[in-house]
Amino acid sequence: MGPKVLLGLLAGAMCAGLAGSAGAQSPDVGWTSYTGDITGSRYKPLDQINAANFSKLEVAWRFKTDNIGNRPEYKLEGTPLEVGGVVYATAGSRRAVVALDAATGELLWVHGEKEGARGAAAPRQLSGRGPAYWSDGKEARILYVTPGYQLIALDAKTGQRVASFGNNGAVDLKADSDQAIKPDLTSGEIGWQSAPTVAGDKVLVGSSFREGFTPSTADNNKGTARAYDVHSGRKVWEFHTIPRKGEPGYETWLNGSAEHTGNTGVWTEITADPDAGLVYLPVESPTSDFYGGTRPGNNLYGNSLVAVDINTGKVKWFYQFIHHEIWDYDMSSAPLLTDITVGGKPIKAVAEPSKMGFLYVFDRITGKPVWPIPEKKVPKGDVPGEWYAPTQPIPSKPAAYARTGVSESDLVDFTPDLHQKALALAKNYKIGPIYTPPVVSKAGGPLATLGLGPANGGTNWPGGSFNPQNHTVYTYACNSCLLPMGLVPPPAGMSDLPYVIGQAGQPVVMINAAGADQGADAPLAKRPPARGGGGGGRLTVDGLPLIKPPYGTISAINLDTGTIEWQVAHGETPDYVRNHPALKGMAMPRTGQTGFNIGTLLTKDLVIAGDADVTTTSDHPRGAMLRAYDQKTGKEVGSVLMPAGQSGSPMTYMVNGKQYIIVAVSGGNYSGEYICYTLPSE
Amino acid sequence: MRWIIPVALTAMTGPCWAQTTSIWDGVYTDAQAARGELAFGAHCANCHGANLGGTGEAPALAGPQFLSDFDGLSAGDLFDRIRTTMPQDNPGGLSRDQLADILAFLLKANGLPSGTKELDRRSEYLKAIGFSAARPAK
Q: Which residue has the higher pLDDT, B84 or A286?
């Protein structure tokens, strides 16, 4: 690896002015982990910013990330941390860590790693979701994973590597794996974009890969989750998401297919309950996302929640949400560890939001479902060579909080004419309930199976949130993220799988991982011109979404009763819908927006989330609203205009008597920026 | 002496760059868009699709949602977004002339009228061309 590129800027300056003013002001409250804590809550019981004053929020400071890397980023997904008056965040196409004064935004230090060819080959580039923080009261460290899959430990005061950790402050997560990364450590496909979780003296890290729409091989590198000792950087355990011969679960891979199947990563956030001694691993699907004929069987621990011993990594219990997954549902969300009371009985619970639109709830000690999750018969497909699981588990409670399958009644129906056109368009596709499998794409139809939730969600990587006081989960869901799942044979040289995602009659396009080739290590040198591809195109009717509103929602789900208490459309009605000529004069409730990257923040009484897309209305100029809802009712109680859509989930903290909210915005022509809001000084 | 007259005269006789032009005013030529279509096929279509429908995370570049995304900005804003970040595997690798051609093709593909003058290759001049999803009222 190359040298650190940016070191210890103004390190000496950061200790000054952080002591805070004395007096009878509210105590400081930090945000010490990606989700606010290691239970996944995204909750802080602060109320200086509240329903009465939310709309008065002003920008305290902004941090533009353009120069953190050799090109700007338009996909800033981070949630910063705040500890002791300092904000720590990952940022920029370099995925550097920055330390900022929490009250003023002043840059205290920045640390980046030049990873050269290894960074350029990384499956998950750009700024990532964030760093982790550890302290024993004397020493404090910031830990993060680079695009090239190194775990770096920094001195929180200076941004310098901690020499005693790993190899001079770095652990090579490729070299230190139980598997030999193929084909080599430089180009071998494995990485991670999420934030590590610090539980006690352990740092927990997962793994991710390129998109599984058009993988080059079924025999990809395998998923893994690991715990490292935060003091030494020594590996404590490694969990094999695809069991090895002799390990339990190996038998669920028929024909020995565990040997030649990869992926099955743990790409989203990990949570932990140190008191119970358990770590909760949400595992994604095996190779490939939409074709599993090369891996017959149920494929443990694909699409499972696995509770492992925090000290050994041994499986304590697991639950498989999808047997033999072929829809790219993965498990997308941080497991939410919350204590609830059901029928008078206290339960230490874990709730798992999902792309499927179900919230699965378990006793987090035993793994027993809180409400029955019966196996239901599901449709069998006819893709040559595919293996189909006859049943899938469907929660009896809570009810689905987002659309699951696709039916004719889900299609746009603003006017009878639009609905007829929608029905005609949908006739080219197979539609059905959840777990209707993909089809081989045929020019005469079906072109594909239409899914609501595959790949995008439902709830995607931002996950949900919960208030431990009222035992309620609040989560965003895309309710209109439509994906055509058609399979075609790959063109020569693309893949060793018999089928990849595509559409009959159109050239097959390699689907890149999000951020691929966009990181600061990716080459700027010219490559041969790409050939023209087809692409399925977006499914619209006269420019309107094929699926009817609400396009995106926030739901409040009470875990004591298992009921959805309220649900609201989240996001301003898109301009192209509100201003559509066919809808002129039509009274229309807010539709919400078709985004899948929205995370929610909970304060004492509010649910806070921004719009994904910009709009221009009679009430506000071009921009996206950061909104606050009453946790009890879902009523919107305030909003503030942002220059671009929310692209990373908001967080909050209190320092020197003032509450702040930071949100990451980017998209369109607006490059990544952290914006910090606070109330005006009276 | 009334001082307002010379000021008004200057404004009327000088080039009309001050937000008076829109993408609806025929700001590119068909020949430019045709060149742009070839360049798009070579450098952009692999991710955005030959039909501009988008693939994976690469958004659609035709249709009401695309127009809405840039509504209220300028042709220069879109030009610079492309110029500084695209193609993803070679940002900065296309010449300004190629980029202007590609932008002309995007405008044509979105049903915006052509004209007799080619799109400028300079961001500062393109910033004077308003980008609006709907035809501005005259």
A: A286
Which of A614, A538, A586 is closest to B131 using CA atoms? A614
pLDDT computed for residue B19 by the predictor: 54
Quick one: which of B102, B115, B119, B113 has its CA closest to B52?
A: B102
Chain B residues touching A532 at Cβ < 8 A: 41-42, 45-46, 50
Asked whether the beta carbons of residue A523 and residue B93 sit closer than 8 angstroms, the reply is no
Contact list, A512 vs chain B (CB under 8 Å) = 47, 56-58, 88
Nearest-CA distance A591 → chain B (Å): 15
Domain architecture of chain B: domains with CATH? 18-131 (1.10.760.10)
Domain ranges of chain A: 25-520+535-678
Q: Does residue A317 surpass a pLDDT of 70?
A: yes
* pLDDT tens per residue across span A391-419: 999 999 999 999 999 999 999 999 999 99
Distance from CA of B48 to the nearest CA of A (A): 7
User: How does DSSP assign B103-124, residue by residue?
Assistant: HHHHHHHTTPPP-SSPPPS-HH
ipTM: 0.76
From residue B20, alpha-carbon distances to B16, B24, B79, B134 in Å are 6, 11, 18, 15
Put simply, whether B50 touches A (Cβ < 8 Å) is yes
Contact A530/B46, CB-based, under 8 Å?
A: yes
HEC profile for A535-602? CCCCCEECCEECECCCCEEEEEEECCCCEEEEEEECCCCCHHHHCCHHHCCCCCCCCCCCCCCCCCEE
Residue with tokens 């120069």: A67
pLDDT of residue A508: 80
Using a cut of 0.80, tell me whether the model's pTM lies above it. Answer: yes
Tens digit of pLDDT for each residue in A505-555? 888 877 776 677 778 887 654 443 333 344 445 689 998 999 999 999 999
With CA atoms as reference, report the closest residue to A159 among A228, A206, A89.
A89
- Average pLDDT score over chain A: 93
* CATH architecture observed for domain A25-520+535-678: 8 Propeller (2.140)
Give mean pLDDT, residues A1-10: 41
